[in-house]
Amino acid sequence: MTVESPKEAPVKFPSPLVRELRGARHVAVLTGAGISAESGIPTFRDAMTGLWAKFRPEDLATPEAFRRDPRRVWEWYEWRRELVARARPNPGHLALVELARRVPRMDLFTQNVDGLHQRAGSRDVLELHGNITRDRCFDNDHPADPGSRSEETPPRCRRCGSFMRPDVVWFGERLPERELEAAWESAARCDLFLSVGTSGAVQPVASLVDLARHGGATVVIVNPDASVFSARDRIVLQGPSGRILPALLAETWPERRSSP
Ligand code: OAD
Question: Same structural domain for residues 67 and 110?
Fold first, then answer.
C-alpha cells in the first residue's frame, strides 16, 4: 500500500497503520541520510546531490584511501563536519523524539554520523556507522585528547603518534558490535519497523528490514523515491520524512495537538 504525499495535499494515512502505531508496544526505527536531507546535509546516492555522485567512496571512505592520502580524507571530513555543524535537526528528527514518548519502547538506530538525532533530543541513539564529530587514532583507536590538537593535518595522536581519523565506519570496516547486536535484537522483536530515508544499499544494516519482516513486524518505509520500495513492503509512505513523520504522529495521536 503506497501513500503519496504531494506537496500541497494533507497526508492521509491508512487506518490500519494508524491503529497499529497507536497500539504498538515496541517500535524499531532505522534512519539513513534522507532524514537529514531537509537539514541541508547531502545524502550519498541521490543522483544529483548525493556525495557518491560527486566523489568516489573508495577515494575517501576507506582505510586504504586514508593510508594513501590522509590529508585529503581528513580535509573532506572537515568539510562535512562544517556542514553538520551548520545544520539543525528538522521536523523529521523532532517527530522521532515525540514518537519515543508515545510508545512503550522505541529503539532508534541510525546509519547517519551527523549526530542530529541527539541534537533533536533523542536518547540512546544507536550509531551504526559512528559519529563524524568524534575522532580516534588510526593505529590504536585512541580517542582524541579533548584538550589539544596537534598542528599537523591530520593531527597526530598524543598517545601513539599515529594520525587521527574520524570515528566513523569506512567501507570494509566492521560495525560497532554492541550497537549492531542491539539493532539486530530490536528488529527481530519489534512489532513495527520504521525505515526512514535510507536506500537500503549498504550491508549489514540493509538486512534489518528483512529481519523485522521475518519476525512478523509491520514494516513501514518512508522515502520520496519509489525505486527504494519492494513488493514486499506492505506500507510505503512516499514523501519527505520532514513532512510525513509529523503528519503521521498528528494523525495517530490527534490529542497531542493540545498537549505540549
Ligand atoms: P543514501 O544516500 O544511500 O540514501 C538516502 C535515501 O534517502 C534515498 O533513498 C533517498 O531517496 C532518501 N531521501 C532523500 N531525501 C529524503 C527525505 N527528505 N526524506 C526521506 N528520505 C529521503 O543514504 P543511506 O541509505 O543512509 O555508509 O546510505 C547508507 C550508507 O551508505 C551510509 O551510512 C554511508 C553510505 O555509504 C558509509 O559510508 C559506510
Answer: no
